[in-house]
Design a protein that fits this description.
Layout: E1 2-7, H1 10-20, E2 27-32, E3 42-43, H2 51-61, E4 65-68, H3 71-75, H4 78-84, E5 89-90, H5 94-101, H6 103-113, E6 120-123, H7 126-136, E7 140-144, E8 153-156, H8 159-169, E9 172-175, E10 182-190, E11 194-196, E12 201-202, E13 205-207, E14 211-214, E15 219-222, H9 231-249, E16 255-265, E17 268-275, H10 282-289, H11 294-302, E18 318-325, E19 339-340, E20 347-349, E21 352-354, E22 360-362, E23 366-374, H12 377-390, E24 392-393, H13 404-407
Parallel strand pairs: 1-2, 1-4, 2-3, 4-5
Antiparallel strand pairs: 6-9, 7-8, 7-9, 10-11, 10-16, 12-15, 13-14, 15-18, 16-17, 18-23, 19-24, 20-23, 21-22
Helix pairs in contact: 1-10, 2-4, 5-6, 6-9, 7-8
Bound molecules: adenosine monophosphate.
Length: about 425
C-alpha cells in the first residue's frame, strides 16, 4: 500500500511511525511532514488545507490511502476532494467535520441525538452572553464557535474575564460547568460501524496542577486505571452510536476518527467536545500501545469494512507522553532554539525544523512529545520523564505532573 499522510506535528510523527510499521505499507509519503517524520517517510511540500493541491499530490503519487492528521484540512473539505477523485481517504467530509468545526453545530447534533452534554446557549452579542453567564453561574465556560486549536475556550470564576472573551470572539457557546475528571475516547468509524480505542487523559493547561492558560495539550496517558468499569461501553451506547445515527440521518455519515472529550460527572459521562481527528498528544500514547497494523485499520474504516476487520490488539501496560514546549508557549512561543537528544526512541518531533546548517531547531510551540510505554502507568511515566531528561533546548518547559495523580490514585469520579 502507498500511503500519503497529511500534517506536520507530534500526532503525525506518531501516525507516521505506526503507518510505516504496518507490513502492508511499502511506501509512506508525508506532506509536509517534519524532520522526525523524514526518518520513515518521503516528505513533500503541500498546502494541506488546499483541497486542489492535496488532490493533485495524491493523484501524482498514485496513493492507495490518504490519512489526514489535523482538523483544518478536514473542515476545508480535503477528504471530500480526495474521495471525489476516487482515492481512498481516512477522515470525515467537511459536513461531518462540522462536529468539530462548529461548537454550535455539535450541540445541535447532540440535542437531536439525545447525547448527554452540558446545557448551553449560543450567544451572538454581549447582551445574550451576559444573560447566559447569569443563567449558568460560575465557573463560567465560554467557547469561540469556530476552530481555535484548543485555545478558544475560557473557563473562569471571573465574570468580567468571561464577558471579555465572549466580546472578543463574536459568536460563542456559553455553557454549564461540568465537574468531574476528563477523559478522551477515540472511535474509528466507517459511517456505520464504530471501534473504540483506549480511553486516555490529556492535560490542557500549561502549568502543573492545571494552572495557567489552555494549550493544545501538554501531555497524555492511556489507559485510565481509575476509569469506571463499563465506561467505554457506556460512551459507545449513549454517545457514539446515537451521534453516528444522527449523522447518517442527516445524510452526512461520519467516517474517520471521532474524538469524544468527556467529563465524568456524578450524573454519568457528558460530552465536553467532539473533534474530528486524533487528539494531539493522545494519539502518541494510543499508537504506542496499538499493535493492530494501522494502515490496514484506517483503510478498512475508509472503505466501509470495519465490521469485518479483526478485533484490535493492544500491547499490555500503559503509555505516557510529555510535551516539551518552547519558551513563551502558549502566548508567544520562541522559535529557532537548537534541540538535542531527539535520537532516543520515543522522542517524537512536533514543532521542529532543520536550519540551513543542518541543526535541528524549534519551529513551533509544542516542540517534542517524549513518549514511552511501561508494564504499568508508573513505569511508563518514569520512562517518559527519562526521555525528557535526555533532551535539551534553551527555554524548554514541560509539566512535571503528567499522569501523576493517576499513578498516586488521586483521581475519582464523583458519585451522585
Ligand atoms: P474544549 O476545547 O471544548 O475541549 O475545551 C477545552 C477545555 O476546557 C476542556 O478540556 C475542559 O478542560 C474545559 N472545558 C470545556 N468545557 C467545559 C465544561 N462545560 N465544563 C468544564 N470544563 C470545560
Amino acid at each position: 500500500m502507498r500511503v500519503l499522510l497529511l500534517g506536520s506535528g507530534g500526532r503525525e510523527h506518531a501516525l507516521a511511525l505506526a503507518l510505516a510499521a504496518d507490513p502492508a505499507v511499502d511506501q509512506l509519503i508525508a506532506a509536509p511532514g517534519n524532520p522526525g517524520i523524514a526518518a520513515v517517510a518521503q516528505l513533500r511540500p503541500v498546502a494541506i488545507t488546499d483541497p486542489a493541491a492535496v488532490t493533485a499530490l495524491a493523484t501524482e503519487l498514485n496513493v492507495d490511502l490518504v490519512v489526514v492528521g489535523p482538523e483544518a484540512p478536514l473542515v476545508a473539505g480535503v477528504a471530500d476532494a480526495v474521495r471525489a477523485k476516487g482515492i481512498v481517504c481516512f477522515g470525515p467530509s467537511a459536513d461531518a467535520a462540522r462536529l468539530e468545526g462548529s461548537k454550535a453545530f455539535a450541540k445541535e447534533v447532540m440535542a437531536a441525538a439525545g447525547v448527554p452534554t452540558a446545557r448551553s446557549r449560543v450567544c451572538c452579542d454581549v447582551t445574550a452572553a451576559e444573560a447566559a453567564l447569569t443563567e449558568f453561574g460560575p465557573p463560567y465556560v465560554v467557547k469561540a464557535d469556530g476552530l481555535a486549536a484548543g485555545k478558544g475556550v475560557v473557563v473562569t470564576e471571573d465574570r468580567d474575564a468571561a464577558l471579555a472573551h465572549a466580546a472578543a470572539c463574536g459568536d460563542v457557546v456559553i455553557e454549564e460547568y461540568l465537574a468531574g475528571p476528563e477523559a478522551s475516547l477515540f472511535v474509528i468509524c466507517d459511517g456505520t460501524t464504530a471501534v473504540p480505542l483506549l480511553p486516555a487523559q490529556d492535560f490542557k493547561r500549561v502549568g502543573d496542577g492545571d494552572t495557567g492558560p489552555n494549550t493544545g495539550g501538554m501531555g497524555a496517558y492511556a489507559p485510565l486505571p481509575w476509569a469506571p468499569p463499563g465506561l467505554v461501553d457506556d460512551v459507545m451506547a449513549r454517545v457514539v452510536e446515537p451521534t453516528l445515527a444522527e449523522m447518517r440521518r442527516r445524510g452526512t455519515p461520519y467516517t474517520g476518527v471521532l474524538y469524544v472529550g468527556l467529563a465524568l460527572t456524578a450524573a454519568g459521562p457528558k460530552v465536553i467536545e467532539f473533534n474530528c481527528r486524533f487528539g494531539d498528544p493522545e494519539a502518541q500514547v494510543e499508537l504506542a500501545l496499538l499493535e493492530t497494523p494501522l494502515a490496514q485499520l484506517l483503510h478498512a474504516a475508509a472503505t466501509g469494512h470495519l465490521a469485518t476487520a479483526p478485533p484490535l490488539r493492544w500491547r499490555p501496560g500503559a503509555a505516557v507522553t510529555v510535551i516539551v514546549a518552547a519558551e513563551g508557549y502558549p502566548a508567544a512561543p520562541r522559535t529557532g532554539d537548537v534541540i538535542s537528544g531527539v535520537d532516543q526512541p520515543g522522542v517524537l518531533q512536533a514543532g521542529t525544523a532543520r536550519r540551513e546548517d543542518g541543526a535541528l531547531v524549534s519551529a513551533g510551540g509544542r516542540v517534542l512529545a517524549c513518549t514511552a510505554t511501561g508494564a504499568d502507568l508508573a513505569s511508563a511515566r518514569s520512562a517518559a520523564y527519562a526521555l525528557v531528561d535526555g533532551v535539551s533546548m534553551a527555554g524548554a518547559h514541560y509539566r512535571s505532573d503528567i499522569a501523576l495523580a493517576a499513578v498516586e490514585g488521586r483521581i475519582s469520579v464523583p458519585s451522585s
